[in-house]
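can u do me a favor
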């Protein structure tokens, strides 16, 4: 309440609290308080460790929210830090969480590779709590991959006053497209002098599921 997490951790680690923690309810409450204090102190790994410890003390129904909290807390750490801590970790559950977070950080901008890496992680860690009760943000990943558009249209001004900007967006998108989703169809339409509604109709007839553009304020 005083926003003094360092003092809170000191108090929670006192012997009187250790004695009180033998009771199941007290163990849970003290663990949650420690996790919150460490989080406020930006000790993200320590906070996640507390949440991992109390995972066995809570019901199955409560684990979804706890897993999301563990996962989001670990994602505050850099990928290299996560990988190093995973190698140093002795406890299997913690190592699994750390490797899951490191993998997510690595592929966070590449849903397809992230999804494949997640499936491989789940095979390796088949008995891990995060495999049995997947964090919400990872559960959404499969839906994102399954529902991603297979046919995309770029409608951009490639000439005239906005031509330089349109071409820059086009070139940047093409570079990312062939790196991240080469199996997706991509068509490019020049909106410099055309009626944008006609171009949208044409893109739709060509099978576009998503349109990026048209950049020009009036056309937007």
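np, heres the sequence
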């Amino acid at each position: 309440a005083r926003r003094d997490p360092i003092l809170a951790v000191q108090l929670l680690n006192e012997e009187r609290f250790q004695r009180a923690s033998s009771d199941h309810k007290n163990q849970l409450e003290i663990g949650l308080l420690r996790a919150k204090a460490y989080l406020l102190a930006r000790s993200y790994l320590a906070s996640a460790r507390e949440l991992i410890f109390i995972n066995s003390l809570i019901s199955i129904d409560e684990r979804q929210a706890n897993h999301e909290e563990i996962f989001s807390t670990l994602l505050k750490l850099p990928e290299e830090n996560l990988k190093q801590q995973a190698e140093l970790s002795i406890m299997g559950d913690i190592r699994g969480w750390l490797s899951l977070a490191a993998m997510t950080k690595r592929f966070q901008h590449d849903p397809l590779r992230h999804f494949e890496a997640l499936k491989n992680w789940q095979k390796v860690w088949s008995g891990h709590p995060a495999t049995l009760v997947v964090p919400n943000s990872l559960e959404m990943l499969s839906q994102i991959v399954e529902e991603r558009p297979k046919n995309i249209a770029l409608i951009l001004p490639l000439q005239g006053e906005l031509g330089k900007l349109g071409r820059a967006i086009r070139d940047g998108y093409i570079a990312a497209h062939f790196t991240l989703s080469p199996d997706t169809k991509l068509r490019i339409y020049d909106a410099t002098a055309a009626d944008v509604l006609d171009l949208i109709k044409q893109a739709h007839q060509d099978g576009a599921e998503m349109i990026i553009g048209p950049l020009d304020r009036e056309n937007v």
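The chain has a mean pLDDT of 91. hope that helps!!
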